[in-house]
Each structure stands twice: as C-alpha cells, then as structure tokens.
Design a protein that fits this description.
It is a single chain. The protein is mainly alpha-helical. α20 runs antiparallel to α21, α20 crosses α22 and α34 packs antiparallel against α35. It is rod-shaped and about 180 Å long. 42% of the residues are buried. It comes from Datura stramonium. InterPro entries: Munc13_1, Munc13_dom-2, PATROL1_C, unc-13_homologue. This is Protein unc-13 homolog.
Length: 1000
C-alpha cells in the first residue's frame, strides 16, 4: 500500500521522471503566462469522486470557476490581521534571495505563514491525530531548475506558492490577484477582509487591458458576476424577499453582462450601479436594516463548496491519494478563510470528513489511511452533532452523512461482493463510518428518535443486523444460481448432485467463511454477528427446502441426498449459532428461535416410513394372494414346508437389505418401524396359514347324554347301532378338503417351524447390518428392542401347538373314528378289542414321522398319544349304551391300554417312558374303578357326592354334571363307570336313584 505522505519538495511527489511543479510553474510564467489556467503534467490517474453532498450552486459555474474563486478568497484571507497591505513580488523578479529584497522592504507586513519559506519541519500533528503515516523523510528537497533555466537550483518556495501549485493556479494569475489585493488594501485601510465583497472589488480593479486577450477578460468578468449571483441571489446568508428591488436590479445587471460584458474599472458608471445593488444585498441585516455586517460568501452551500476545494488542495497534485507534508501549515492558512466564508470548527469537521472520505473513493479505494482518517474525523463530527441543534448545520450534516452512509451501505448491504482477501482491511473502517453516520443521523438529527427513549434503539446493532441479513440473502441468491449452473453442467454425468445438495454444501462453506472472516469484524458492533448470519442462511435455505419437501412423494436417491445435506447443514449452522451466543444472557435462545428446524431428518424419516409401509403393504398383499393358492403339498419342498414360506422369507431378507442400503443417517431409529411391519406380516402369514385348520375342540366329539347300558343285549347288533356322539360340524366340512388333511397340517407345522428358525438367523443378520451402518452407535446394540421379531415367533410357536393338537385329535377322533369310536368295545369287549385301532394308529405315526421336521416330530407324537389316551377314556366313560363292561373285563381293558402305550414306547425307540407315564396318569387312575365291585363303586359315589354337595345330598343324591375332567374320586366319573357296569346292584342303584334311560 502506498504511503499517503512521501518526501517532496514544495509539492514535489513522484517526479523522478516528470517535470517538477516548480519547473512547470516557471515554464508557464515564461512561456504561457497569457493563459489563466494552470496546465500541469502529472502522472496521476483521473479522479472519480462521489457527487458533492452540497446542493448544486448553479449550472453556469464550472469547477475551474470555483477553484479560482476559492484561491482568491484564500489569498485575501491570508493578508495580515492588522490590515496592512500584502507585499507584491513580481513573478519575473530575478532576485530570489532568502532574505527580503530591497524592492520588497515592506514584506514583513505580509502574513508570516504565507511568506514563510519551506524548511524541514517536525512530524505533522494532524497526521498523528488522524492516524496518517508520516513519510520516510522529513527533509525538504529542492526543486530542480526548469528546462531552459540552465539547471540553476531554485530556493525553497513559500507556503503561499505551494498552495498556488496545489490549486493549479498560474504565476500570472497569482500575480494579478496579489496586485489587485494590494490595490484593494490601499483603498480600504483598516477594513477587515471579510467585510469586503471580493468579486466586486476585483471587478473594479481591472479592465480589459490588464489581460492578455479579450476572451480571458470576458471569462474572468463572467466568473466574478456569476459568483456574485451565487453568493447574493442563489444562496444568500439570509433569505431574500421576492420584492427586494436590489436583488431584482442585480439580477438584471448580471443577465445583461453575461450577454454583453460591462465596462469595469474605477469610477465607471456601470460599476457604480453594480456596487450599489451588491452592497445593498451584502449589508442586509436580519431586521431589514443595512450596514450591520457584510455577507456575500457565507451562505450555505456556496461557502462549503468553496471550502471543500480549498481542503482538496491538501492533496498532492501529482499523487491524488497523498496528503502533502506541509498539511499542518497549509491547514492553518486555509482556516483563515472561515471569516469570509462564515464557517466554524463544526462545519470544518463536516467538510474535512467528506473531503478525506471522497478522496479515498475517488482514488480507487486503495489508501486505507485516508479512510481511517475520515473515520477519525467523523468521530469529531459526532461530538459536534450532540452540541448543537442549529437547523442549517443539521441540514448540511444530514446531506453529507447521507452521502457517506449511502456509499458505505451500498457495499455493506452486499459485503460478500465487496470484500475479499485483498481489501478486507478496509472493511472495519467502512463499517465504522456507516455505523457512525447512521448513529448521528438517527440519534442527533431524527426528531422521531428524540421523542423516544434512546435505550429502546441500538442503532449500531440494528444497522449491522441489517447489513448481515441483506448481504447473506444476496450471497445466498448467488449461490442458488451457481448451484443451478453446476447442476446443468453436470446433467450428463452419472449421478449428478441435486441442486439443493450442492447448495447446502456451498451454504456451509459460506457460513464458515462468515464466521472466520466477517463475524470477527462485525462483532465489534453486534455481539451475535455470526449467530445472525447463520440464522439468515438457515431461513433462506429452509424456504427452499420446504418447497422441495412439499414436492417429493417418495424416497428417491435425490431426495435422500438433499435431506442428508440439509440435516448436516442445519447441525453446522446451529453449532455456529450456539458457539457465538455462549456468553449471551439467554444462552442463544433468541437466535435459535429464528431457526425453525428444517426437520430434514423428520421428513426423511417420514419418507422412509412411507417406504416401509409400501413394502409391508405389498408383502401383505403377496401373502393374501399366495396363501390362497398354496396346496401345502409335502412334496412341494424338500424340507416338507410350503414354498410360500420360502418366498416370504426371501422377500423379508431383500427388504432388510434394501433398508440398510438406503443412504439415510437413522437406520437404528427407523429399524423398529420396519421390524414391526415385517413382524406383523409374518404373524399375518401364520394366522392365515392356520386359519380353518381346526384345533383340539374341533375334533373331540361332544359329550353324549348319560345313559344306562342295555343289559339284555349282549351282542351288538348293527341295526341297533346309534350315533353315540355329536361331532363338530366343521369336521364334516373339512372331511372333503385335501388342504386340511393330516399331511397338509404337518406341512403347515413344518412351515411354522421353518419360519421360527429363520427368524433367529434374520435377527443375527440384522445386528450385522446394523453394525455396518454409518449411523450406528454402541448403545444401539445394548438391548434387543426394535431389532428382534416380537410377535411372529410366538405366533409360530402357538401355531405349531394348535396344529399339533389338531393333528393328534384329528387322527384319533376323525381319521380313526371307525376303528376307535365305532368299533372299540362295541357289544362284547373280548370280541372288539383295541388291535384294529393300534394298527391304523401305527400307520399314521409312520407317515407323520416321515413328514414332519424332527424338531417338532416328538411334539406331534405326544399330542397323538394324548389324543389316543383321551379317546380310550372317552370310549370307556362316554361310549353310550352300546358299551357294557363286567368286573372281569377290567383285565382286557388294562391289557389294551398297555398295548396302546407300547405303540408309543416302540420298544424304546419311541417316546420316553416318563413322558408316556405323564400323559397316561389319568387313565391309570381311572382303570382300577373297572376292577372294583359295584357295591364299592356305589359307596365311593355316595361318599364323593356328599363331599361335593354336602348335607343337601343326604335325602336325594343329585345327578353330577359331566365335566370331562375324569378322576377316580369325581362323582361323574364314578357314576359313568356304574352306568356301563353289567351288574344287578348297579342296575338297581341307577334305576332307583336316577331312572336313567337305556337308549339315547
């Protein structure tokens, strides 16, 4: 970065390869003194300043006009405060000795500052105060001689000549001005310069003959007339009444003179008329009287515009971004113009702040020292603004600060576009200027603000908040366009990223950049700058995400990518907000409230749940469709189970694979939903598969009414055979349905067992898949919740038990009914024993053993054995009047029961003895009753009945109900043994006590 203050010789800067200012001045004075403008050869770039905050003076006044007038005022103001005349030294004087020449013997009466030679000076106090750096050397170099001068070194010039060079005024013009001022001073001895209407006096001092040519004279005259117009008519110190005759007269004179130049000079009639009109206006007072004071150039904004030009002279003409080394001395002289221009320190502070700021802008915004100086000067303006409520001051303050604030905010409202690594150093100062200007405008100028308590508004924080939100919204919109362009550029590539996924990544990077680069700067004015930034980005992205989520209907790869990217972005943004707000009173709650959750994970979870529901619904439909077609054929599968079970397990396995392949971060959280759905589907499969297969109660015949055996009929006659029991009507229905045969039931049992076994395998596989998922944690494996099938295993066990019961009781009470129920012990027990039933039973056991899985084979055989024992007892105790037993038949019965048990023992190859004994207990306990005599049975029955019914049974024994729970001490069991006893005592007891019928 270039230094603002460099080594120079009387305005000398970067002139190693160019003509010096002194040489240029000398050349002009000798070769082109006729021109009134100064033509310097410089290496500087063209300035690009901001429009002046001071209103337009008049379209007819050019920048050159204003500069020459400002210089005239400067020279006039720098005359001696005693009112003595300025010494005039001709520009062609050959004697330039350091000491006063004889021809300038009265030069000591000139302003000391104006005529003081430039020598080595101490470091500038102003530079220190404004934070401007000093040049590397404070020595004053001498300017080289101009071309044609023989290279003779010139003496150091004065401050006055330095100002002339800075303002690009030729020596010829400077000489004419000084000559005129000497004449004016001679004619107005003792009169203060601020009481002089300078343009009027200058017009009176010169005629056309004093100029090189008529055009120069005409231009000079018109300029002074237009200056009078600006100062007295367009921008007067006090407002003019439209009826003011002096104003009307002056306006007519000026308009006429602009068309046809008037004759100037002393004692000229036209000049006297002009003087009368001018002085009448210049000497107006607030009450309308004359000669209170003289006002011609102290009306706003003319004075400020002229003063602005003077202040700009502090900048080197050859290096617009650098302030000359002699700024302290020059500024002292410039301030002498306050009396003429009607300025004070407060207006100086405003104007100087603007000049420093505008020069920074005009020179390409590269000299940050200028910006820092403007910011420092603005701090003085802030102090001034609190000390006065002058409306004129407030008006100019408002326009100046509005211009500065407008420029600053144009950059701060989109600071991501304005600042980068190359110019980030200027950002704190630009922010400071913007905030300072806003605070002054709001707190010290705004009437509305004054009416409110100042504690209610934090201007600085409010402005920074606005800058952050505006800039980030702009940056976000640019990222949107960039992401869309990237998407279009990659549309022909494999698996291009969705726009919002690209955008989420870019927004995350933008948030990180904001936190690292911009937030530390902005935190000076806003304690939660980073939090506001990420909250803004969160809202911007959230709006886009909301539209995206509302448009998707299924879990696509694009949707998952976007939602995952959004979820990561939200976590990053919230983390920044929390870290930034850690020291806040509310712990960052206010910022977090500005960040309504994306609920990306929730949206993703909902879509995954929809995906799960769709899969589960399809699986259930598949179960319905395939179970209707399933034939339950043992040969359909080598394992003896249904093909539909193989398929449903395959579908479940594929569904689990597909679930864990979903690129989502919440597999553990959503796994219970999937497991629950699959679990219910399997339960549904089991329920549908066993539906209609019946159970134990389906096949056990209903208990017949209690009857007395037919004693007279020893031989069973077929024609007397009656149906002793009523079977469940469902038996008849299933009798002709092959899908519910014993073998088909066995296939169903095998199927349930297969499913139960495979579920254990699936559960282990689920754990493996879960461990391999990216989002799994240790706690996800600490318990089995959501990772196991909860209801289908129990459904399988229950289904196996139900069908196993159904198989046993179907074989005994349905398939073998002809040889058991219709054959065993019908008529004479000795001629209708159990052997036919055992033969058929063994055949069925062989078939079942070859059909069912060995893991469930024992259970089914046990259930067949249990059904056989129940059937044997039912024949003995509820076989109807066709069955009759004597006491001697007890041995036959016991032998037959032993044979029945032997079938299941199978010489040690069948069921274990302890299992057989467990289920044969009831039969073993009841069989001794058949060996007992009738009297003993009757006595036991009486005793048991009395124990059951109490004293109410003494007068008449009640008929005990049939419970089906046979027991040797139970009244109904004892009574049934008596009913089927071929014994006179039993007959008499039953006839007398109950009068039971002999037939159904």
């Amino acid at each position: 970065m270039a230094s603002l203050f460099r080594d120079r010789t009387l305005g000398y800067s970067r002139r190693d390869s160019t003509t010096t200012a002194a040489a240029a001045v000398s050349t002009m004075s000798s070769g082109s003194a006729a021109t009134s403008s100064c033509r310097f050869s410089t290496s500087s770039s063209v300035l690009s300043p901001l429009p002046s905050p001071f209103p337009d003076l008049t379209p007819s006044l050019s920048a050159t006009d204003l500069r020459e007038t400002a210089y005239e005022i400067f020279v006039a103001a720098c005359r001696t405060s005693t009112g003595k005349a300025l010494t005039y030294i001709p520009s062609n004087s050959s004697d330039r000795s350091p000491s006063p020449s004889p021809s300038a013997s009265n030069s000591n009466s000139s302003s000391p500052s104006m005529q003081r030679s430039l020598t080595s000076t101490a470091a500038s106090k102003m530079k220190k105060a404004l934070g401007l750096r000093s040049s590397s050397s404070s020595g004053i170099k001498r300017a080289e001689g101009s071309p044609g001068s023989g290279g003779k070194p010139k003496k150091p010039v004065t401050i006055g000549e330095l100002m002339r060079v800075q303002m690009k005024v030729s020596e010829n013009v400077d000489s004419r001005i000084r000559r005129a001022l000497l004449r004016i001073a001679a004619g107005q001895v003792g009169r203060r310069i601020e009481s002089t209407v300078l343009p009027l006096e200058l017009l009176q001092q010169f005629k056309a003959a004093d100029f090189t040519d008529q055009r120069e004279y005409d231009a000079w005259q018109k300029r002074n007339l237009k200056i009078l117009e600006a100062g007295l008519l367009l921008h007067p110190h006090m407002p003019l009444d439209k009826s003011n005759t002096a104003a009307q007269r002056l306006r007519q004179i000026i308009q006429a003179a602009l068309d046809r130049p008037i004759e100037t000079g002393r004692n000229n009639e036209s000049m006297q008329v002009l003087r009368t009109a001018v002085m009448a206006l210049a000497n107006r007072s607030s009450d309308g009287s004359l000669f209170e004071s003289c006002h011609w150039a102290d009306g706003l904004p003319l004075n400020l515009r002229l003063y602005e030009i003077l202040l700009e002279a502090c900048f080197d003409v050859n290096d617009e971004a650098s302030i000359i080394e002699e700024v302290d001395e020059l500024m002292d002289l410039i301030k002498k113009t306050w009396g003429i221009l009607g300025l004070d320190q407060m207006l100086h502070n405003i104007c100087f702040s603007w000049v420093l700021f505008n020069r920074y802008v005009a020179t390409g915004q590269v000299e940050n020292d200028l910006l820092d100086a403007a910011d420092s000067q603005l701090a003085e303006v802030a102090k001034d603004a609190k000390m006065t409520k002058d409306p004129a001051y407030a008006k100019i303050l408002n326009s100046t600060l509005t211009a500065m604030l407008g420029w600053a905010e144009k950059r701060l409202l989109a600071y991501h576009d304005t600042f980068d690594a190359g110019n980030i150093e200027s950002m704190p100062t630009i922010v400071s200027i913007g905030v300072s200007a806003a605070k002054i405008l709001v707190e010290d100028i705004s009437n509305e603000y004054r009416r409110r308590r100042k504690g209610e508004v934090d201007v600085a924080r409010s402005r920074i908040d606005t800058y952050i939100r505006s800039s980030l919204r702009t940056a976000f919109a640019q990222l949107m366009e960039k992401a869309d362009s990237s998407r279009r550029a990659s549309r022909h590539q494999a698996n291009p990223l969705p726009v919002l996924a690209i955008l989420a990544k870019d927004v995350g990077e933008l948030a990180s950049k904001e936190k690292e680069i911009f937030s530390p700067i902005l935190k000076r004015w806003h304690p939660f700058a980073a939090g506001v930034a990420v909250a803004t980005l969160h809202v911007c992205y959230g709006n886009e995400l909301k539209q995206f989520v509302s448009s998707i209907t299924e879990l696509t790869p694009d949707a998952v990518q976007v939602l995952r990217a959004a979820d990561k972005l939200e976590k990053d943004l919230v983390q920044i907000a929390v870290e930034d707000s850690v020291d806040s009173d509310d712990g960052g709650k206010a910022i977090i409230r500005e960040m309504p959750p994306f609920e990306a994970e929730g949206a993703m979870a909902n879509m995954v749940k929809d995906w799960i529901k769709t899969r589960i619904d399809r699986l259930k439909e598949w179960v319905d469709r395939n179970l209707q077609q399933e034939v339950w054929n043992p040969q359909a599968n080598e394992g003896g189970f249904a093909p539909s079970a193989v398929e449903v397990l395959r579908i479940i396995d594929e569904t689990l694979d597909a679930f864990f392949q979903l690129p989502i971060p919440m597999h553990p959280a959503l796994l219970p939903d999937l497991m629950g759905g699959l679990d219910r589907c399997l339960q549904y499969y089991v329920s549908k598969a066993k539906s209609g297969c019946g159970s134990r109660n389906t096949y056990v015949p209903s208990m017949p009414a209690l009857t007395r055996c037919t004693i007279a009929t020893k031989l069973w006659k077929k024609k007397d055979k009656t149906l002793n029991t009523k079977r469940n009507s469902q038996v008849a229905t299933m009798n002709g349905d092959n899908s519910f045969g014993v073998l088909q039931l066995c296939v169903r049992i095998n199927t349930f067992h297969r499913i139960r076994t495979e579920l254990e395998v699936l559960e282990k596989r689920i754990i493996t898949l879960l461990r391999n998922s990216e989002s799994a944690h240790v706690e996800d494996f600490s318990n089995g919740l959501g990772k196991k099938f909860e209801i289908s295993p129990a459904a399988c066990v229950e289904g196996i038990q139900q069908l196993s019961d159904a198989v046993g009781y179907r074989i005994v009470f349905h398939d073998l009914s002809p040889v058991l129920w219709d054959g065993l012990y019908i008529g004479e027990p000795s001629s209708s024993r159990i052997e036919p039933f055992l033969q058929e039973l063994e055949k069925n056991l062989t078939i079942i053993s070859n059909t069912v899985n060995e893991r469930v084979r024992t259970r089914i055989i046990v259930d067949i054995m249990r059904a056989s024992f129940d059937g044997f007892l039912l024949v003995l105790l509820a076989g109807g009047p066709s069955r009759i037993f004597t006491q001697q038949d007890s041995q036959i019965i016991e032998d037959d029961f032993k044979s029945l048990k032997d079938v299941f023992w199978a010489n040690g190859d069948g069921l274990p003895v302890d299992v057989i004994n467990k289920y044969s207990t009831t039969v073993r306990d009841v069989l001794p009753l058949f060996r007992a005599d009738a009297e003993s049975l009757i006595e036991q029955f009486r005793r048991s009945t009395l124990e059951t019914y109490g004293s109410s049974a003494k007068s008449r024994l009640p008929l005990p109900p049939t419970s089906g729970q046979w027991n040797p001490t139970e009244p109904n069991t004892l009574l049934r043994v008596l009913c089927y006893r071929n014994d006179e005592a039993a007959s008499k007891f039953l006839k007398k006590t109950y009068n039971l019928p002999k037939k159904l």
